Amino acid sequence: MSETSQATEARTFSPPEQLAAHANVGPEIYDEAAADRLAFWAKAARRLTWTQEWDEVLDWSNPPFAKWFAGGKLNVAYNCVDRHVEDGHGDQVAYHWEGEPGDTRTITYAQLKDEVCKAANALTELGVRAGDRVAIYMPMIPEAVIAMLACARIGAVHMVVFGGFSADALASRLDDSGAVLVITADGGYRRGAPSALKPAVDDAVGRSSGVRNVLVVKRTEQDVEWTEGRDLWWDDVVGRQSTEHEPESFDAEHPLYIMYTSGTTAKPKGILHTSGGYLTQVSFTHWASFDLKADDDVFWTAADVGWVTGHSYIVYGPLSNRATSVMYEGTPETPHRGRWFELIQKYGVTILYTAPTVIRTFMKWGEDIPAGFDLTTLRVLGSVGEPINPEAWLWYHKNIGGGRCPIVDTWWQTETGGHMINPLPGVTTLVPGSAQAPFPGISAKVVDDEGNELGDDSTGLLVITDPWPSMLRTIWGDDQRYVDTYWSRFAEKGFYFAGDGAKKDADGNIWLLGRVDDVMNVSGHRISTTEVESSLVAHPAVAEAAVVGASDPTTGQGIVAFVILRGSAEQQGEGASGDDLVQTLRNHVARDIGPIAKPRQIMVVQELPKTRSGKIMRRLLRDIAENRELGDVTTLTDSSVMNMIKEKLPAAPSED
């Protein structure tokens, strides 16, 4: 999104009168939070059921290591399931689940409670104890949610790995987290065909000494390799358990889950979230940001539980608020491009939360597709994962929201746990493309390089100036990396900075500008340049690689790689088989990291632009990849390198 388009965005949209009149929160919420931030979050925490009240709302005596609601005790799974059943809502649907092939399951809160209790008993039988780590590598099926809640119920720490990641990615996460159990499935359905998961698990577990058992859900009925004594069928172990299980209360700071995210090194970071503060913020933001009415709404976060969006707004936020949710296994175009709209029509979805990448894909397909379905039940739309450009916002508003639904554009991260900057649908006059204002109780500012707050109509760095309940507590097993990564840039001021640039417009609205470090945002998924470079250099044909994220109209950023070949491969790169080698390298990265990391373009070059100290100038490569005028080249060892690369630039990106 260009700064010009942001600066000149003049169209605004007021909240619908009916929604504003009955909204869960009104404009006074900002004053309430500003008057006493800690009292505000304590009130939000009291929406949950605690077995023991906390001693202190926030313990910030050892920054940046926060403790929220210290001394308080609760059970996260009880708050998501049991209490609703006890309150007489057992017959309410928790999930309308739809498999990609069209099979369906309707799961009520009472049924979900029974399944979670059985799974908790099964985990206990397998020797899993509070504090143990359990890896979950699953398709989008109800058992993924059940497994997460069962872990939460017994105090085990779940570590969900997106089902599209490779065996290598899974193995490194098993190793780093010290997982004792893997819960997986034979496979899932993707783009009309079964996609196997068990082989990747077998490969990864073969390299991990700590994993004692692999629990396998039957989904696709594919043949799977079987290790007797280690591998167990979910149906056999969970199926015979009692539906009675007494939830134990855990301290508010008890670890709930680890989620791995890309860093600026090749080693992913294990983001640690704890229980009380995390559940408080995801529950409250879900209720306030989407104006959720538990008795009437049908809520759909169209994401995967393998990402933080799925944790916070498919599982913990919605369930804690007794939402009825839709959960869909497959892709938007299977078996046809209207599948999502068909589901909105079928289940009467009222709130839809998805990524700009998908919206831009729908734009490419054309407005006649959503026009073929009844989408009139929708009342609130949401956007997540990356900044939404104004054109996509307006298309979403008109063609999916029928011109009547507010769009809640949410900025937050794996690290923040829950919403941080977003409009409120019954309060905010919307500006397309802007996340607008910090959520009540969140202290976010746009600052210059020294950490001084900037006024309106300026561009700088986005920082969070005060701790928030759902913040990450550390990087698993690496407190120093946590301090260095997020708190060192503005250490003297105590600001959290995770690498995003931001702009404030003349009215003070915040616009996100994407990352200022070497982490790329591809379709809302964070992938480090280092991780992709490491993969490319691991191929025998490649001597050196530099990777940048370049603007992409569909995915937000596309991965563009520049590679220098080893001597033996150099002739291939220049000759007729150069295209073949490029495809081989693209496929190599997809196999190594996962399809999401497959470079959009790979250019074979003779040299890379380097400073005199040997640092690759990725900024210049980004200029090349985005067809911009070259920035400052004065620090280069040899500025003619850039001209050589520019001359070789292909007219269009390689296609799959």
From TrEMBL:
<feature type="binding site">
    <location>
        <begin position="409"/>
        <end position="414"/>
    </location>
    <ligand>
        <name>ATP</name>
    </ligand>
</feature>
<keyword id="KW-0479">Metal-binding</keyword>
<feature type="binding site">
    <location>
        <position position="500"/>
    </location>
    <ligand>
        <name>ATP</name>
    </ligand>
</feature>
<feature type="binding site">
    <location>
        <begin position="190"/>
        <end position="193"/>
    </location>
    <ligand>
        <name>CoA</name>
    </ligand>
</feature>
<dbReference type="InterPro" id="IPR032387">
    <property type="entry name" value="ACAS_N"/>
</dbReference>
<feature type="binding site">
    <location>
        <position position="515"/>
    </location>
    <ligand>
        <name>ATP</name>
    </ligand>
</feature>
<feature type="binding site">
    <location>
        <position position="539"/>
    </location>
    <ligand>
        <name>Mg(2+)</name>
    </ligand>
</feature>
<dbReference type="Pfam" id="PF13193">
    <property type="entry name" value="AMP-binding_C"/>
</dbReference>
<dbReference type="InterPro" id="IPR000873">
    <property type="entry name" value="AMP-dep_synth/lig_dom"/>
</dbReference>
<feature type="binding site">
    <location>
        <position position="542"/>
    </location>
    <ligand>
        <name>Mg(2+)</name>
    </ligand>
</feature>
<dbReference type="Pfam" id="PF16177">
    <property type="entry name" value="ACAS_N"/>
</dbReference>
<feature type="domain" description="Acetyl-coenzyme A synthetase N-terminal">
    <location>
        <begin position="28"/>
        <end position="80"/>
    </location>
</feature>
<dbReference type="InterPro" id="IPR011904">
    <property type="entry name" value="Ac_CoA_lig"/>
</dbReference>
<comment type="similarity">
    <text>Belongs to the ATP-dependent AMP-binding enzyme family.</text>
</comment>
<protein>
    <recommendedName>
        <fullName>Acetyl-coenzyme A synthetase</fullName>
        <ecNumber>6.2.1.1</ecNumber>
    </recommendedName>
</protein>
<dbReference type="InterPro" id="IPR042099">
    <property type="entry name" value="ANL_N_sf"/>
</dbReference>
<keyword id="KW-0067">ATP-binding</keyword>
<dbReference type="InterPro" id="IPR025110">
    <property type="entry name" value="AMP-bd_C"/>
</dbReference>
<keyword id="KW-0460">Magnesium</keyword>
<feature type="binding site">
    <location>
        <position position="526"/>
    </location>
    <ligand>
        <name>ATP</name>
    </ligand>
</feature>
<feature type="binding site">
    <location>
        <begin position="385"/>
        <end position="387"/>
    </location>
    <ligand>
        <name>ATP</name>
    </ligand>
</feature>
<feature type="domain" description="AMP-dependent synthetase/ligase">
    <location>
        <begin position="87"/>
        <end position="468"/>
    </location>
</feature>
<feature type="binding site">
    <location>
        <position position="523"/>
    </location>
    <ligand>
        <name>CoA</name>
    </ligand>
</feature>
<dbReference type="Pfam" id="PF00501">
    <property type="entry name" value="AMP-binding"/>
</dbReference>
<feature type="modified residue" description="N6-acetyllysine">
    <location>
        <position position="615"/>
    </location>
</feature>
<comment type="function">
    <text>Catalyzes the conversion of acetate into acetyl-CoA (AcCoA), an essential intermediate at the junction of anabolic and catabolic pathways. AcsA undergoes a two-step reaction. In the first half reaction, AcsA combines acetate with ATP to form acetyl-adenylate (AcAMP) intermediate. In the second half reaction, it can then transfer the acetyl group from AcAMP to the sulfhydryl group of CoA, forming the product AcCoA.</text>
</comment>
<dbReference type="InterPro" id="IPR045851">
    <property type="entry name" value="AMP-bd_C_sf"/>
</dbReference>
<dbReference type="GO" id="GO:0003987">
    <property type="term" value="F:acetate-CoA ligase activity"/>
</dbReference>
<feature type="domain" description="AMP-binding enzyme C-terminal">
    <location>
        <begin position="531"/>
        <end position="615"/>
    </location>
</feature>
<keyword id="KW-0436">Ligase</keyword>
<keyword id="KW-0547">Nucleotide-binding</keyword>
<feature type="binding site">
    <location>
        <position position="537"/>
    </location>
    <ligand>
        <name>Mg(2+)</name>
    </ligand>
</feature>
<feature type="binding site">
    <location>
        <position position="309"/>
    </location>
    <ligand>
        <name>CoA</name>
    </ligand>
</feature>
<keyword id="KW-0007">Acetylation</keyword>
